[in-house]
Amino acid sequence: MCKAHVLSVASAKAPFEKTTIERRNLRPDDVLIDIKYCGICHSDIHNAYDEWGGGMFPMVPGHEMAGVVTAVGPEVTKFGVGDHVGAGCFVDSCGLCEYCLSGEEQFCTKGVINSYNSLDYDGNPTYGGYSQKIVVREDFVVRIPDALELDVASPLLCAGITTYSPLKHWNVSPGKKVAIVGLGGLGHLAVQYAHALGAEVTVLSQSLNKKDEALSLGADHYFATSDPATFSELTGRFDLILNTVSANLDVNAYLSLLRVDGTLVNVGAPGQPDKYHVFSLIMKRRSIAGSLVGGIRETQEMLDFSAQHGIAPKIEVICADQVDEAFERILRSDVRYRFVIDMSTL
Ligand code: NAP
Ligand code: ZN
Fold first, then answer.
1. Per the UniProt record, which residue ranges are transmembrane (predicted)?
2. Which residue, 317, 323, 316, 320, is CA-closest to 15?
3. pLDDT in tens, 248-260
4. Cα 181 to middle of ligand 1, angstroms
């Protein structure tokens, strides 16, 4: 076992405390990672505030980990000491079911093991990336390309793959009209991926405040959803809408923006159910869908694609004692666009 300094919350909405936990001894296929940076995902807030229910406390959030390998088990073949690596939302799966075999471990039928707020297959709680060290099976570790600095790479491990995966799955390509709803951590990466995949990209944000930044990220158009004229002007416009908003929206209003056969894909995950009228779907054969991060193989593909296309999150690096304040700022949409914790400050 090795001790790891962590940031932990004792109960829902409690402030962060600095404490230590034990990480397991390396198994033959384990990698020990010195976490250098961890991004703050809005899911960390949903979990730490127990907005989705079932929270396991004390909790060490964090699933956007980037760091350096410091030890490997004897059967590890893919990584060596000194490699720059990442770990994301999950750290284990059965490896045998149809979804694991097809590289979509997030849908593992035995149940994927989340990086935190989960019990592993031995029944031990998992603790996430607000931590200086983590032990992860090598199959759940990805390589960070040299072109990406570790601080900038960390948000890609969740925000990057969560937006890249549905854009690929729904065949975003030249000629497609795509709207990204919400220009936060996920949204500002989604704009970059959709643009790189050749789509015509529209950002739908609450206000006009982020217009110049959105255009510089590759958006072709930008509209404020606080202006009712936006919804009349854009009726029937989009092939795909990617909703990255952490709160409930007026789903019927967004469905009305889809063409015939258009799809509204939700990655934003508010704790309360959404409501929509079935006629919003029926009359134009529209679909509502959801998407959950992405598999390990696709996460590696997304990292390589990001490095190749110069795609990177805009980050604000913070110290370990600023995380409570960062949560509050995220809730006020006062972040451009991802907070990243510098783990050397823990
Ligand atoms: P974030 O940085 O807080 O961004 C969310 C954005 O949504 C905000 O920047 C804001 O954009 C918009 N927004 C917030 N409150 C709103 C409201 N009341 N009405 C309308 N728009 C609002 O969060 P994030 O880290 O990108 O995560 C976004 C959501 O995705 C969270 O619910 C998170 O749990 C979820 N998530 C899901 C997955 C998955 O696998 N499906 C993975 C990661 C995260 P504007 O200022 O531009 O309006
Ligand atoms: Zn996340």
1. none
2. 323
3. 999 999 999 999 9
4. 9
The Cα–Cα gap between 19 and 115 comes to 18
How close is the Cα of 94 to the center of ligand 2, in Å? 22
CB 31 within 8 A of CB 141: yes
Q: Is residue 333 part of a domain?
A: yes
b/e code 303-316 from CB counts within 10 Å (16+ = b): bebbbeeebbbbbe
Tens digit of pLDDT for each residue in 143-170? Answer: 999 999 999 999 999 999 999 999 999 9
Residue nearest to atom 16 of ligand 1 (CA): 247
Here the tokens at position 94 are 């059965």
Peptide bond between residue 58 and the one before it cis (omega within 30 degrees of 0): yes
Cβ 158 under 6 angstroms from ligand 1: yes
Task: Note the pLDDT tens digit of each residue in 87-101.
Answer: 999 999 999 999 999
Find out whether the beta carbon of 292 lies less than 6 Å from any atom of ligand 1: yes
CATH no. for residue 235?
Answer: 3.40.50.720
Return the CATH number at 45: 3.90.180.10
Query: Which of 114, 223, 231, 246 to mutate for ligand 1's pocket (most ligand atoms within 8 Å of CB)?
Result: 246
Identify the nearest ligand to the CA of 63 by its number: 2
